[in-house]
Every structure is written in structure tokens, then in C-alpha cells.
Amino acid sequence: MEYMVDGKNINIIMKKLSWLFAAISLIICTCQPPDNIPGNLIVNPGFENVSGAFPEGWVPLMADEKGTFRFDISRDQAHSGDNAIEIGRVWSQAWDMNGFKTDSAIPLDPASKYILSFWYKTNSVEEYPIPLVCRFMVNRDQGKPLRYSKSLSTREDWTKISWLLDTLPEDAVSGDLAFSLRIRTKGTVMVDDVDFRMADESAIRQFESWRRIPVPSPEGDAGRAAYEGAGYFRVEKDSDRWWLVDPEGQANWAIATMGEIPGNKQGNGDYKLAEWFKKEYGENRLEYARMQYELLDSWGFNSFAGWTAGEFAKISSEKHGKEEKYMPMYSVLNFSIMGPDKDYYVKDNKGNYKGVHDHSFPDPFNPQWRRDAREKAESRIREYRDKAWFAGWFMDNEIDYSSLFRYVWGDYSAMEFIRFLENKYRDIKDLNKAWSSTFGSYDYDSFNDILSDKPEPLEWDDPLFIDFTAFERIIMEEYINYTYDLVKELDPDHLLISNRLNLGPMMCLHRTLDLWSRYDVICVNIYPQNLFIGFSKGELEILDWIHEKTGKPLIIGEWSVPALDSELYDFGKDPYDRPLDWSWPQVMKNQSERGKAYRTCMMQLASKPYMIGAGWFKVLDVNSTTRRANRGMINSEHQAYSEMTRAVSSTNNEIKEKLNLPK
To answer: Which long-range contacts (CB under 8 A, 24 or more apart) does 310-318 make?
Structure first.
């Protein structure tokens, strides 16, 4: 059966919910948990009872967007019994979710702990390694519903996933469970044998053991990889291993974090640390930077990450001039951010920008954007152009390119699109014939009529999809080539690093990923979900996939994990009425566990031969008037999380030892 939303004939619509992340600590493993706990709270867990077109106890869930998805009851591939649910062939915007959910709420006792388990498998999902979302929403007596979700990787065989829900808000009354395909895909996912029940202590202990995964041991010898000095940082491949090579020719691996100075009370700042800094240092930012510089060095860091304050650059410059050990600098150019009054971003046929806030995708054909980008580059690059201790430039940060083929109607890209169509078809009658199908009939008198109509593809088999995705590549290639050529012209010696690609829009990257190979290094921002203590199989597969398609070394621009004992995720009344942060689903129990996650993740990354470094986000906690999140290694009292930083220090030094990095 197929459920469709076409703007006119609506069979099933479920309003997209803006839920806060749920107050649930979920521990997920692919091992089979004990099955001796009675009392499955799921109605029709194996989908055996079918009433009409849908299994009893379950209802379809469709994204609030023009599109379709396919739902079937599979009767020949079930994990057990006769039936399994199969969803697939999703046509929707990447963030929207299409699938199914429980028909009625599951009763919850906030003092109890629960285990959720189910079996799933994927078939022909080739667009992205993490296609399936399972989410659990906690309904509360007083507060707003709290949402928690996890994304799961492709699996060819039936795989059992289990979650431990062991922290519920005191006013939790019930929960809703949903399974969704979050990506536009022609493939399918099957789900079967869903189980939700109270957990006993024995089961919890087993889960705690299962979520620990083997820690790999990095291999490589930076001392053996000898290169001639070129005066600037570069990347080189020695046998099967990529290295970051310093100006003197020494191979290295960047163990990085961002040097930062307290003072900002909003955004990613800390209002308590702002007051502390004023009291302890007054206006002397450089004095504080010198203190933190030495602290980070003592913790084993050997590089700064992209968001580092300028005072740290001054210190690195001084140290380099004295031929002392220094930490190289990077900087983010942010070509997508030119000011709130700018109107030169790609748009859909309704005039909506691609992206929100500081992540909108610019129209690369817009001459004003190109002029502003050049002006910004000239201003920023001038400061670092001839500095040997400066490593390289990140072009942008987390720009949103999801479903970019729908955003061809920017003021200048639209005109380029029409030129593209004219060059391909020559005669408008040929375009009309090529585009007309069961999805729509076209009878344009001229190519300019397309600008007024602003059509878009309606489904995978819509003939328009071919031309729109072809032009999507042209838009992306123009952005990549312009930014690369611009920075290379102004700074021919330093590393040119891609936009800091984040997981949000990455499910649409498969159509343009090869184009990113123009840059020297590909950057990824990736925050582990805490499926295990460490990066999950799917998260690591994403990194492998990016390297395979580009052939370039990777660097992690941002990564980190938070913990509950930071007290930045409390349920109680917040003085600034700040919601739980988006990082809530990633929380560890405490700083000790957080330290274990640091070691596992860093060892996983350092074990990837194409990886040249990783940047922890960040040094200071986020505790501003607008946001609260345990991202730092130092709390709001300017005290280091001792268990965490001991693990950081020992891990960083272990990586240096195993890869024979400069001490």
C-alpha cells in the first residue's frame, strides 16, 4: 500500500512534531538481551493481527510535506511469525520522517526502568549508511512531551537492537514509539518483533557490559615518514597512512581542541564564567590565553581547532619565532554568513531559503555574494597568509545542502538553470515532451515560462528529477570551485579544507560527494549518538564512505560527548527557561564514563588511516542565558572535570606513543 500527500488528495497526514529531546538515557546494543522478563507492553508486537490495511495497534506516520512513501506488510520475509512491516521508497525532504507509530500511548511508571527491543533489516538503501530512526516520546503530566531518537545503520540481515530507558522525568505518564525512514531513498527497511517491558537489575548489568565495544589500536609511525620541509603545513600519504606534515617536514596527527576565552553570556558562552573572568582577569584576555595554552599542552593537545580565539594565534606565533613547541592554528571563513540583511541564498519555488540561521546555502551565481565572499576572504586571509604556524582554512561550517535540487530558484541560479535547460533541449517542445508524464503535463511556449511556473519533481520516476539533480551538481560545483579558487588565489600555500560537513543534511550528499575532492582535506563534524560508548558502526561507515568517494584525507572539525553529572541537563525549573539541549540524547552517566568515551572515540578515529586529526568541541562548558550543554572540559566554576581530563590526557599521550608523534 502507498500513502501519498500531493497537496490535493491527502490519505494520511500527521503533523510534524517539534518535540524536545526526551529525558531518557538510552543504551543501545546489537546483542540479544534476556527474554525472561514478562509483560510486553506493546500491542500486536509482531504485526500478526491485521485489520484492513494496517496492523492493529499501529498507525502510519507521514511527513508534513509533498511526497510519498510505501508501506507494506511483508508476509514472506518476517523475522518470526507471518508478518513484518516494510517501509520504503520515501520521497520527502531529508529531515522529514515517514513510517509508523504506536496507535495508543504506552503507560509509564517514572520510577521504573524499561527495555525496548526490536528486530530490523534494510534492503537496497544505497543513499546513506544511517537511514532508520527509532524514536520514543515521553508524555508528561506537567511538562511538554520529551523526545528521544536514535538513527540506525544499514543491515542486510535481521539485527536485534535494544534500548535501556533508565531515567524518566518525575511527571512521565506514557510514551509513544515510532519507526521512520528519515532519508529520501528507493530502498526499504523492515521491522519486526517489537518488545517494551520493565527491566530488572540483571538485565541492566548485561546492557552495561554489552554497550562497551572493543577499542582499536592505532597503527602508524610518524617518525618513519620523513619529508622535506616546504615551509607550510600540508598532507602526505605514506604507504597506507595519511599524515599532517608540518613546515619542517615532520609528520603529525592533530589532537585538537578550540582555545577559548570566557566572556560571552549568550550562545555557546557561559554567563557564570563571564563574571568569573571579569573578576580574575579583568580585560586581560592574553594573560588568560597563556594560562589555557599551557593547560591544553599539559593535557596532551598538539593543535587548535577552527573556532580558536585570536589571542592563541599570537602565542603560537611567539613560540614559533622562538623555535619552541607550538600548536598550529586553523580558521573558519564562513562564506555562507555575510550578514542578516543579505538576500543571496538559494531558494525553493515558494521563496524559502535553503537552511536556517547561520547555515543557509548561498547562491554561488549571485555576483553580490561573490563580491562579499572575496572581500571577506581578503580581510581574513591577510592576517595569516605568510604564517608558517597557521595550518589551513575551513571554507564554511555546516551549510545545509539537503534536497538542494529543490532550491534552484534563487535570483541568479534560476537564470543559470534556464540556460542549462536551453543548452540541453534547444527547443522548448523537446523539453515539454521529455518532462510530461503521469506526474504532470507541460506545454510551455518558451523557456522563460519555466521561471514563472517554477515546477519541481514529484517522485523518483518524475522525469524532472533527472534535470533538477543534474543542476544540483552544477550549483554545488560552482560553490566548491569558487571558494577553492578564491582562497587559493589569496593564499596559495596553506591547506584548503572543505565546509565542515555535519550529519544533518548528509543523507543528500551522495549525489555530489565526488565534487568535494577539489579541496585538500575533507572536514566532518560528527557527534556520537551514544549507541555504544564510542562511535557506532554507521557513524564510522559514514567516514569511510566520504573518504572512499573523495579519495582525500579527513579531519574531524568538531566532536564531543556530554554527561548527566554536569547538572546541565536537569529537569527542574531553569533560571533562564532554557530547554534541554539538543545534545541531551548523547549524554553519558558521568565524567568517568565520558572519559571512557573520549578514549574509545579518539582511538577509533586515530585508527582510520585516512584521518589526519580530530578537534574536541570544546574547552569551556556551554552555560549561557540561551543554552546549557556539557560540551567543555572545564565547568562554570572554572574547575576541570578531573576524571574526564585525566582520561583526555592519558588518551592523547597514548595516541602520541602509538603513532610515534612528536612529543
So the answer is: 311/259, 311/261, 311/285, 311/286, 312/259, 313/384, 313/387, 313/390, 314/286, 314/289, 315/286, 315/289, 315/290, 316/389, 317/387, 317/389
pTM for this structure?
A: 0.92
CA distance 245 to 229: 8
Distance between CA atoms of residues 117 and 128, nearest Å? 23
- In 3-state terms, what secondary structure has residue 324? coil
Same domain membership, residue 260 and residue 179: no
φ and ψ of 236, to 5 deg: -140, 155
Domain residues for the domain of 94 are 2-210
Q: Is residue 592 part of a domain?
A: yes
Which candidate, 531, 653, 546, places its Cα nearest to that of 602?
653
Low-confidence ranges of the chain (pLDDT < 50): 1-37, 94
**Measured at the alpha carbon of residue 494, what is the angle toward residues 488 and 496, in degrees to the nearest 5?**
60
Together in a domain, 205 and 312: no
Q: What is the CATH number of the domain that holds 605?
A: 3.20.20.80
Q: How far apart are the C-alpha atoms of 247 and 390, rounded to whole Å?
A: 10
Q: What is the pLDDT of residues 645-655, one digit of tens each?
A: 999 999 999 99
- In this prediction, residue 340 carries a pLDDT of 67
Instruction: Supply the pLDDT for residue 18.
Output: 31
Q: Are residues 110 and 11 in the same domain?
A: yes
- Domain presence at residue 186: yes
Hey, which residues does 437 pair with through a beta bridge?
440
Of the three residues 187, 210, 233, the one that is the final residue of a domain is 210
Examine the domain organization and report whether 15 and 152 are in the same domain.
yes
Give dist(CA 500, CA 616) in Å, integer: 14
**∠ CA(579), CA(580), CA(584), 5° rounding?**
165
Among 329, 333, 332, smallest CA distance to 256 is for: 329
Please tell me the predicted confidence (pLDDT) of residue 391: 99
Distance from C-alpha of 636 to C-alpha of 69, rounded to nearest angstrom: 47
For CA atoms 574, 577, 580, 581, give the dihedral sign.
negative
- Which pairing describes strands 50-51 and 159-165: parallel, antiparallel, or unpaired? unpaired
Judge if 198 and 274 occupy the same domain. Answer: no
Which DSSP string do the residues of 554-583 spell out, in sequence order?
A: EEEEEE---BGGGSSS--S--TT-PPPPTT
Kindly state whether residue 352 falls inside one of the protein's structural domains: no
Q: Which residue has the cell 490535493?
A: 8
Residues 630 and 541 in one domain: yes
